Amino acid sequence: MIQVDDLVKQYGNGETGVVAVQGIRFEIQSGELIAIMGESGSGKSTLLSMMGALNTPTSGKYTVFRALILME
Q: Three-state SS string across 12-45, please?
């Protein structure tokens, strides 16, 4: 399961700052398939890079729960 809670990513500060992702909240259950869709420049790649630990959020949090699978 993945939980994303109030995730924000801002580049720069003040008048020149750009908010790439603002206040995203969702939950993905184990085995669930999703699609992240939006216009060009809407923050899809930024969101995915934060979820993949390639980019640090400005605020908010995401949690990835791992399931332990034992195979014999």
A: CCHHHCEEEEEEEEEEECCCCCCCCCCCCCCCHH
Please provide the distance, in angstroms rounded to a whole number, between the alpha carbons at the two ends of the chain.
Answer: 24
Residues 6+ apart with CB under 8 A from 53: none
Q: Are 43 and 20 in contact (CB under 8 A)?
A: yes
pLDDT in tens, 2-60: 999 999 999 998 888 999 999 999 999 988 999 999 999 999 999 999 988 899 999 99
Would you give the DSSP letter of residue 53? T
Three-class SS of residue 65?
coil
Question: CB of 61 within 8 A of CB of 24?
Answer: no
Residue in 43, 37, 6, 38 with CA at minimum distance from that of residue 23: 6
pTM: 0.79
